[in-house]
Each structure stands twice: as structure tokens, then as C-alpha cells.
Design goal:
Two copies of one chain form a homodimer.
Chain A: H1 13-28, H2 35-42, H3 46-58, E1 62-64, E2 70-72, H4 74-98, H5 106-112, H6 118-127, E3 153-154, E4 163-169, H7 174-182, E5 190-196, E6 203-207, E7 210-214, H8 216-220, E8 222-225
Antiparallel strand pairs in A: 1-2, 3-8, 4-5, 4-8, 5-6, 6-7
Chain A binds a DNA duplex (30 and 30 nucleotides) through residues 12, 14, 34-36, 44-52, 55, 66-68.
DNA sequence: ATAAATTATTAGGTTTACCTAAATTTTTAT
DNA sequence: ATAAAAATTTAGGTAAACCTAATAATTTAT
């Protein structure tokens, strides 16, 4: 007769922060994630990063090649996605339930993402109605780490020159919807960012060969797929 | 013209755990809280406790007399009450919103109580409807650290021989309320615990000179003031 | 009142996660 | 191709929060 003892996989907050940072940097550039990139993102010195990368490699969370950066292993990716899932679910909770603005949730979500409780995560997801996107429009991984297909962004997050297709609206007040109707903006509308004013972040967008000015308030409330 | 720079008061999770433990032990016994008491409660060795008590004393959170234990200062008490407030609000949230049973919330609340965000605490309190008692019937300190006057307990938390006055019910299903009516238990009913069966935690209570048997399920759902 | 038992403190050690400074490797530029 | 610049790693150090073992103070029991 055999007795199996399960060691719960537990990582420190710091290890989780590194995994998440590697995950995000991996999205941006291909190839290994550099020590300096992590050092900058995590606001620690390069020497500290090197030390941690060796530890993560020892735990089989990353593949680490001296001087050539790291990449998440499957195991590392799985855990990184759980942290991202928790982070985005909490952001959704803070905005939807606790009257936070979508630009003041990050710091608190950074703390909440480390709370360990599988039941908590699943029940929170259920309570919130299994949202697909967080308040920034970023996709929320599901229980198995799967991301919804086409992540929506806010129009205000596009850069000058980028194009997008209108996918939804955050403010559903009739005054906002009337405003959209007047500008002939609806679901499926194609648009291109022509210009962004730096002083008030208002935009000029090209829709159907017409130049339309939109305030930051408006562009924050329009979701696009790019 | 003067410029004030505010240093946010920040304590480590460990320091907060010590403050909370001292707070709880202080309620139970008068005089200084002992090193061994804390050592047992926090599951750390006495030597570690001594070390931390010196640190907390240095931060003016406790009054510490070598060999004679500690007591919270006003500053220490204030912060301990904030931790207790957060712990109990989160317990309430877990039970009311996330389908946790009241006996499975503690471990998660132990983690959530360390999340730092004044806005989060106040908004959570508001979202939950400013509850006065947590799911165990323990009082929730308000923003200023004030505890509601007469904390309610569950009937199941009384010891043999203790008396209480019925103050409310958790299960408000008609079947439970009908059961209560049949036993002539209502708000304001005086009762005394005559006996507790150790095998199923059922009780015999004396109400109005009648001996009434109550299951653990029933006594869990009856709130009393003692 | 003093010895025994209990409790608390000190001394010295560990791990995590940072740091600086020095050394080494890789990359870039002439 | 090689020197300078940039990036990375190594070496050695710190503070927090734990530990064990040894010592000291207090309490209890005879």
C-alpha cells in the first residue's frame, strides 16, 4: 500500500510577481525575456533578477540560459495565467462593485492577486458573472488558463495611426448612445485614430471618410477590437 | 510656509499578525499578554516572539516589559482594530456573496485582512450594507474602531451553563421560523444552556422552565446576546 | 527559603529578497 | 577585428522573520 502526500504548489509573492512580469514581457517581444527588462519592470536591480531567475529555473517555472534571458515553461505559464486571472477578476470586482475608477484599481489588484484560495477565485468569477474582459478591456483567462479570442481595448488605448472595429460601449446611458448614433458610430464601425491631443487626450478619428472629434470621456467608453 | 510630508504608516504582515494576536489575548485575560501565549497562538517559537515584541515596542505599538509581557498602546490598538475590521468585513463578504460556509472563511480572511487600501475597506463596508456582525456573530469595528455595543454570538458558541437572550436568526426560511415558533423561541427569549452533547454538538436549552433539545444546525442559526 | 520547574531572553544560524561593487560576457561601433 | 559600451553575473552584505540551543529570570512547590 502506498501513501501519497501532496505538496501544495506554493510560490512566494515575489516569485509570482516575476512570473507575471515575464508573462507580460513575453507577449511584447519574442525570444527570451531579458534581465534588464525585468529589472526595469519590477524596479529591482539586475543582480536581484539574476538571483531570482536561477531560483525559478530550479523550480522548473522558467527556462533560463545565462546571458540570454528566460522563457516561461508550461508550468510557469500556467501559474502566470492564474495570477493574471486573479488580477483581472479583482479589477472587475473593484470597478463593478466597489465604485473604483478603472484607472485606480491596479495597485489594489496587485495585492489581491496573491490571495491563495481556489474556491475564492471560482466563486468570485461566478459572482461577477464570469466576465470575459477586465475594466481596461484586457481578457480574463478562464479556469483552465484559456484567454477569450479577440481582446477588446478601449478606443482611448489605441495609438495614433491604429485602426479598430467598434465592439461595445461601457456607458449605456441614452445620452451617450444618442451621441454615438449622431456620429454614426455603432457595433462593427471601422475607425482609424488620426490624432491624439496631448493636453486633454481627445482624439480625432476617421470614420467612413469623415473626421470626428471625440473627448477622452467618449473614447474611454468605446470598446474596439484591433 | 510649511510643507508636510506624510509617511504612510505601514506594517508588515507579520507585525499585523502579532498586533491582532495581542488584541485577542488582551480581551481574554487582563494584565500583560505573555510571550508563551503569543507563541502558542501564532505557532512560532518564544524566541521569535521576544524578537518581534522588541520591534513592536520600538515602533510604539506596544508597551513591553521584559519578562512581564506586552500591552497594546493606543496606536497599536488602533491598528489592531483596523485589521479586525478588515478580517470580519471580508468574512462577511465571503459568506454573503461568495457562498462560503461560515466555518471555511477564516483562512482566506487571514490573507485578505492584510490588503492595504483605505478606499477598499470603506467601499467594501458600504457595498455589504455596513454590517455590524460577521458570520460568526463577532462585532465589526467601524471606521473609527468603535465596536457595536452588545456583540451577538451564535447560540452554538455558548458554553454549558451560560445564559443568553435571543437576538436574531440567520436562516430565515419559513420551515426554520415555523420550527422556532413551535418551540416558542422568538426575539427576546431568555435561554440557558443545560447540556451539550459532544458527539453531535446538539444542545439542551432551558426556555421558560421547559427543556428543549436543539441540533447544531439549529443553534448555529440562532443569535444570542450574553 | 530555597530548589525545581517553568517561562523568557540572548546568542548564533538560516532563507528570502533585496542591495552595491567588481568581474565577466555579449553587443556595438569604429 | 578589436576596443568601447552595455548587459549580465558573481561576490559579498543587509534586514525581516523565522529557527535551535544555551542562559537567565520568574514562579511554584516543598
Amino acid at each position: 500500500m502506498y501513501i501519497y502526500i501532496l505538496f501544495e504548489i506554493m510560490f512566494t509573492q515575489s516569485e509570482e510577481n516575476y512570473l507575471k512580469a515575464i508573462f507580460h514581457l513575453q507577449q511584447e517581444v519574442e525570444g527570451g525575456v531579458s534581465t534588464s527588462g525585468l529589472s526595469e519592470k519590477l524596479k529591482t536591480k539586475a543582480a536581484s533578477v539574476t538571483e531570482m531567475l536561477k531560483r525559478l529555473a530550479g523550480k522548473k517555472l522558467v527556462d533560463y540560459q545565462k546571458y540570454y534571458g528566460v522563457q516561461l515553461t508550461d508550468k510557469g505559464m500556467q501559474h502566470a495565467l492564474l495570477i493574471v486571472r486573479k488580477h483581472r477578476l479583482w479589477e472587475y470586482f473593484l470597478v463593478e462593485c466597489l465604485n473604483f475608477n478603472w484607472d485606480e484599481v491596479h495597485e489594489v489588484a496587485e495585492q489581491l492577486e496573491h490571495i491563495r484560495s481556489p474556491k475564492l477565485v471560482e466563486e468570485l468569477d461566478l459572482f461577477l458573472g464570469r466576465p470575459q474582459y477586465d475594466p481596461h478591456g484586457d481578457p480574463i483567462p478562464d479556469t483552465n488558463g484559456k484567454l477569450p479570442k479577440s481582446p477588446n481595448k478601449r478606443l482611448s488605448q489605441l495609438q495614433k495611426g491604429e485602426r479598430g472595429i467598434c465592439k461595445g460601449f461601457n456607458d449605456t446611458s441614452s445620452s451617450f448612445l444618442q451621441f454615438l448614433a449622431k456620429q454614426e458610430i455603432g457595433l462593427g464601425t471601422n475607425l482609424e485614430v488620426l490624432n491624439i491631443e496631448s493636453f486633454d487626450e481627445s482624439m480625432t478619428v476617421l470614420i467612413d471618410k469623415k473626421e470626428i472629434p471625440l473627448s477622452k470621456t467618449a473614447t474611454d467608453n468605446i470598446y474596439v477590437e484591433d
